[in-house]
Structures are given as C-alpha cells and as structure tokens.
Structure prediction request, 259 residues.
Amino acid sequence: MNGQTVGGIYYEVAGNGPWMTLSHSLACNLHMWDPQMELLTKHFKVLRFDTRGHGKSVVSSAPYTLDQLAKDASDLFQELGVQQTHWIGLSMGGMIGQTLALAQPNLFASLVLADTTSRRPDNAVQMWGERIDIVRAQGMEGLVDSTLSRWFTAPYKEKNSPAMQAVTAQIRSTPVEGFAGCAQAISAINTFDRLPEITCRTLIVVGSDDHGTPPAMAQKIHEQIQGSVYHVIPEASHISNVEQTALFNQHLCDFYKIS
Prediction:
C-alpha cells in the first residue's frame, strides 16, 4: 500500500475487484479504517484517502465546505479513472458521501452511511465554534478527552485497547487548521430533504450509544432513502467500526454478500 498524493489529497489503494472508497471521520485519517481492511481487500480495490486538512493531505486555510470536500474526492476519482465506486463513510465521511451522491447520482454503486447525520442541529455553529476556539487556544490536546468520551462507550474507553489508542493518536495529530476547516464544513450539513433522490443501494448503521449522531437521526435517514437497510450496533458509540468491529464488519458482509 504505497501512498501517493494527487491535488493535495493523500491516498492509498489496496486489494482487487470493484472500487470501494472509505471516508473517515473528522479528527481521524485513513487509518481509522484499518479494522475493515483485511475483510474488504479480499473483495474490492479499496481506496482510502485523508480528507483535506487531515493526515498527509493538504492543510488549506479554514473554512472548508462539504462541496469542496466532495470535489476533492471527485477529483481524485478522475485522476485514478474511477467511474463508479462503492462508498463507506463514517460521520464526516458519511456527509461527504451524501453530498457526492446528490451531486453525481451515478457515481456510487452503493452507499454505507455510518454514524452520520444529514441535518445540522440548531446549535451547530455555536457548538463547533466553541470546539474550534479550544483547539486554536490549546491545540488538539484540548479536545482529546472530551472527544474520546463522545466517540466510545465508557466500558470500551476504560479498556484503552490498541485500536482506541490508534484513534487517540489520530486525534492528537490532526492539524488545527484542518480540524477547524472541516468542523465548519460539517456544521452546515443540510441534505435531509434531498435524501429521497439517492437511489443506489444504501446501508445505514449507527452505534446504540452514539449521542452526537444518534439512532433517531439514522432512523430518519433510513426512512428518507427508499429501500435502505438499517442496523443499530449495540454497545457502541460514534466510532462503531472500531468499537464493535466484528458486528460492523458482519453488517458489511451481509450487505455486500461477502465473507
């Protein structure tokens, strides 16, 4: 998996088969998907990339927009000759996926929306503004503990597994300007009313204890996308692919009919 950078976006490709694109959460990077790689690379040509402002990708000045983040992915597809791809996006990655699916209806062979939302809460600008102020004053370290408490259930957090340690390192290493830019982008998410336009096969999964993008929101997304499949993952919070890897992966196996 030799990584390369195109248009400022760092990416890695592994495996063989139809294209599969993985899009990570805010304050993570492409390694958030490490728990899924062994499974997915058996069946797909997996493209992982660092969203603008994260990992090894370009850190441009904030703010960013979801349209801009979606264009980064679209430009990457064009460079790689990707005409159609499956897409798995968690949190911010799910928001980018919705934005792309609505802009380019034939791009996705399927769509997985994990622990994400389609409508900003009323206090989104204030909430994200406060977090941006914290990181500008204290660096990402100022958000590590509160983020981990939102992202993982207390019992899992107490175990301090190697997988959670890896996510913690990703949070700490996120560039402040990249966090700020993407936080401003997702604070404006507003795709809900257009979700019925999404016609590709869609799977929606959410952790039972995800308070940031809760099951009630995921249920509404499910109701908006005709024929979508919906699962709640028990004993998981926001980063459900890490906290409950076996269950998350099983839902992927069922959806894609792989093993």
Q: What stands out?
A: Residues 4-256 form a domain with the Rossmann fold fold (CATH 3.40.50.1820). The mean pLDDT is 97. Residues 47 and 88 are 10 Å apart (CA to CA).
